[in-house]
Amino acid sequence: MELTDRKKQILKIVVEGYVATADPVGSKAIAEKMPGKISSATIRNELADLVEMGYLEQPHTSAGRIPSPKGYRLYVNELMEQHTLTAEETDSINSALTGKLAQVDQVVSQAGQMVSRFMGYPAYAIAEGRSDVTVRRFELIGVDEQSFIAVVMLSDSRVKSQLMQLQLSVDSRRLPEMGHLLNTHFTTIPAQEISLRLMNLSDQVEGSWFLLLHQVCDYACELLRQASGQSVFTGGTSQLLKFPEYRDVDKAQELMSFMVDSKENLPVPMGDSPMQILIGPENVNDALKESSVVIASYDIGDHMRGLVGVVGPTRMDYATVAARLSYFAESLSRMFGKPQLPTKEETQQ
Amino acid sequence: MELTDRKKQILKIVVEGYVATADPVGSKAIAEKMPGKISSATIRNELADLVEMGYLEQPHTSAGRIPSPKGYRLYVNELMEQHTLTAEETDSINSALTGKLAQVDQVVSQAGQMVSRFMGYPAYAIAEGRSDVTVRRFELIGVDEQSFIAVVMLSDSRVKSQLMQLQLSVDSRRLPEMGHLLNTHFTTIPAQEISLRLMNLSDQVEGSWFLLLHQVCDYACELLRQASGQSVFTGGTSQLLKFPEYRDVDKAQELMSFMVDSKENLPVPMGDSPMQILIGPENVNDALKESSVVIASYDIGDHMRGLVGVVGPTRMDYATVAARLSYFAESLSRMFGKPQLPTKEETQQ
DNA sequence: CTTTAGCACTCTTCTCTCTTGAGTGCTAAA
DNA sequence: TTTAGCACTCAAGAGAGAAGAGTGCTAAAG
Predict the structure, then answer these.
(1) Most buried of A135, B204, B209, B271 (most Cβ within 10 A)?
(2) CB-CB: which of A146, A162, A342 is closest to B159?
(3) Interatomic CA–C1' length for residue B35 and nucleotide D4, angstroms
(4) Which of these ranges, A39-43, A206-210, B90-94, has the smallest mean pLDDT?
(5) Residue A343's pLDDT is what?
(6) pTM of the model
(7) Same domain, A35 and A69
(8) Do A253 and B247 touch (CB under 8 A)?
(9) In which element (H, E) is residue B94 found?
């Protein structure tokens, strides 16, 4: 059977009607929205075809039609009109972002909540870890006889620091020397290597100083470990409850606790496309089989990517969500996409 | 009318029965749990008295009784038996805490979720800000011709650092000099003062270096601002849905969005008691009038306090929650209560 | 004066049935 | 191929009846 233009148009009306009201759409309502005068009977014939082809479903014999996942997919791929953002929409995204631009880390952890607020759906943000992060530089700053600050600069240009106690009172004038030792032996190597080399040094450095090195190296390893693990932040899960498809408390809780407790299993985009839409059963994870996810990725620093995703019922306003989310992701790319340190090439010019 | 021991005992049975099952408790069930043989008719007489006195309520004429807020209050004040934690309970709290002890900031932000997990109720954590935090020390570390690291040590012993770009290429050998300038002019003073003094310096320092000072001072002011504002973290709000009193999606959403969007209004303890229980209408906030809150506070650093709270239906297992929460708070006090830097007195001994 | 047994009464909850109305599928004519 | 007409289906809502838990009251017993 052929998928005529008229069939497509009917499908589009059904999707948009159902997205707007959550009620199955009947032939009469469709007839009114179709250009030209077509009777509801004709529409019914077409609807029957669309059901047969798998683009629509009927909840029961005497209800209107609702889109099937396949129907949504066709809608998203071909029928959906580009939603152009209003000034209001872009403004509210911009203003929220400009306030918080301080630190990359913070933005990622807040992105989930921000996205959720703008989209009106639960959302999440993932910063993918990189296993190739190393320490670029150590710095030790003496504070008093019993404490010092360890500053660690990572190869992804993030800087972390922590106050540390000295177990034994030692002459802080030797701190620069220890810093030098750290910089010569423990930079640009992976975490496992750090532990190894530290062991080798245990003979060459006297006890109390070795403890200091140990403390700093532990801290560095912890940072590298954190950098290599991906971090996931969810936000606005309670927005789920406003959708009729989650009025059933058990369904709502299933998805909510999935988003909170099994964050790590939230979908990440396959391939390189900057925006991806997963509809209902297209999701691998059981908890999402009746929901849809829209994902957009953005650049962080040099070669890193982060992603933001929106979760909702399959009856999601894909056009609006996709437009807003991609704008949001582009904004983040614009803010953090450029390397934070100028590269060698740029410096030379 | 007198509140006899027997009446109290009946009240206790009603509270504990209702807390366990969420069903109104009938006279027959009570009679079976009472020591000695007392008929259900006698119990009914007592129940009628307890209702008259305001300790119990009946949802409708032919249902059992449920405790009123006043009844819960009496239970909490007098009747509740101290719940002693099992080894399992303490172990799981300890093990979760020991893993994350790295940084105070992180613990506060994760405490909400951790508490929620252990209690089985939604929870929150607040770190109260202090307005008297100042910068104790600045440190500038050159990275390359166009960037440096600003390290700021605050008077509450926290250390923060950030990578900064230089607008103009300047000789980084003068960085220590700038650091010295910052340390002599901008430490131990409040944020407003920093802005003021910076203005005064604008003449004395040449343009590009002034920009650098500006950048660092802005960062410091932002940190002080953050330190003075209180931060609130909620966790496990989706746990609400498992309680029958929140099966009504609208009620659930009201409380959930209150906990997420109006975090700042979550109750803080009055007075000095380390543990506080607010039952139903005792809560000031409308959104909490039908819920209860258990709050415990703990020490951070020298003279600071943080707090953790649990939110749930008035039908809450107060004995268990109180015991676990106070243990949790005590553990945090133990970990962070001691000043992170030894005080002068300790050093001199 | 307190406790108890007995019994009618109340009120929720569950189930079953009936009604209503939206929407369909099919047929036959245009 | 389109349309009008009509019988049919099914969910949702309203009522009615039955079941069951628990009460309140009364009168007798301790």
Answers:
(1) A135
(2) A162
(3) 80
(4) A206-210
(5) 38
(6) 0.87
(7) yes
(8) no
(9) helix B87-99
